[in-house]
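Hey, I'm writing a tutorial for new members on how sequence and structure tokens pair up, and I'd like a real worked example in the thread rather than a made-up one. If someone can provide the structure for the chain below, I'll link this post from the tutorial.
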Amino acid sequence: MKTHNTVVSGFITLKDANVEAALFEARHEIGESAWKQGYSEEKCKATRAIFKKHGAGFVTKLSGPLMGFSTKENVDGSGNTYQKARIVLGKDIISLEVDTEFCQRLLPKLETVIADMGLGTEIVISAFPTEEERNGRKFINHTASVKVQGTEVKGASHFKKAQEAAKAAGEAMKSAGIKDAKALKAARQSAKNQYFWELAEKLGRICADQHDPEPSPLFIKALDRIQKADISRLDAAQEWVSAHFFGEELVLLTEAIQNRCSIAA
């Protein structure tokens, strides 16, 4: 399973020992405060060099048939909720937090592919930073590119609607007599994230309608074997699952394996 990392400015593999070692060293070398500030060209180069030293891989693009899209909410031990989008691209599963800029830029383009072209469409997803100047200040945008047969896919203008939702949330807070700047900012950000979460859930429903609702006999057999397998065999089980399944069945079996690993840990 892969995710997007803003400092690396690319896709990295989750729960990979080499990647985790590289990230740990990079965060220590760069410093926690600077790391949390996100991308800069200097930090990206330093982190990629550390990745190379550890033999940890990253890529700036992923390609394959779009086989599935789903959403999931995870709750940690402190009660914090994390809303995630899961994209199945060929044999790869990409897990993205919906409140990130990259995911919010990607969703409208995936909407075009899913709604207009359907599952199974061959696409290329790329991630790269672009610099923008506003009011005399420079900002980094984490751009999401989706191409079909070499042509960039255009998405609907959801950012304007998300900004309208954020503005309405702020005005509602002010009308209630709340004028604290931090509270207003948090309300606007929450409304924006909720807008994109609802868009992600919509895409998940469209994909669910396009899928065969009946699980395959091989899926049922594989799930049963995963639930009974010895913990030491789960890495091999993941390799076999990745080689034999696509789409939602791949996501579900991968989650079953990860759940077994989490319980064992």
